[in-house]
Amino acid sequence: MMVITNIKWSEMSDAAIIRQLGAYIRGIRLQQNRTQAQLAEMAGLNRWTINQIEKGESITLVSLIQILRALDSLHTLHDFEVSEDISPLEYAKLKRKGRKRARPNTKPSSDSEDLGW
């Protein structure tokens, strides 16, 4: 597996990030011993699109997803997962709102209020 470490994404230009994505796709494709034409067919794209991204040219996000799916590499998108974490304070507030107490009935019923004596 191709491992690239110490990349400072925030310091890279957009063009450099696209080149890095292209290099990643090319590396995975070659590890799987596939040609650009094979990958293009698997992804439902033309070979020109595969060639473009591998050369560091821009492609659409949909094409990138199709390529990653064809390479069985959608797991690389796991950092985009949105988690709705709740803070401990918010959790406590929600628990308090949902809590139901059993309270004794301190109000006398209408039958026992006036016995007429």
CATH superfamily of the domain at 9-79: lambda repressor-like DNA-binding domains
Shape: elongated
Overall SS class: mainly alpha
Q: CATH class of the domain at 9-79, anyone?
A: Mainly Alpha
Strand/helix succession: HHHHHH
Q: Oligomeric state of the chains?
A: single chain
Strand content: under 5%
- Give the N-to-C terminal Cα separation: 93 Å
Relative helix content = 40-55%
**How many DSSP-defined strands?**
0
- Would you identify the regions where 5 or more consecutive residues have pLDDT less than 50? none
Note the main sheet.
Answer: none
- Arithmetic mean of pLDDT: 84
The CATH architecture assignment of the domain at 9-79 turns out to be Orthogonal Bundle
What radius of gyration results from the CA coordinates?
30 Å
The count of helical stretches stands at 6
CATH third-level topology of the domain at 9-79:
434 Repressor (Amino-terminal Domain)
Describe it for me?
With 117 residues, the protein is mostly helical. The chain has a domain at 9-79: lambda repressor-like DNA-binding domains (434 Repressor (Amino-terminal Domain), Orthogonal Bundle). Helices cover 50% and strands 0% of the residues. It has helices spanning 14-31, 36-43, 47-54, 61-70, 88-98, 110-113. Helix 2 crosses helix 4.
Keywords:
434 Repressor (Amino-terminal Domain); mainly alpha; 0% strand; elongated; 117 residues; 6 helices
Concise structural overview:
The protein has 117 residues and is an all-alpha fold. 50% of the residues lie in helices and 0% in strands. The protein has a domain at 9-79: 434 Repressor (Amino-terminal Domain).
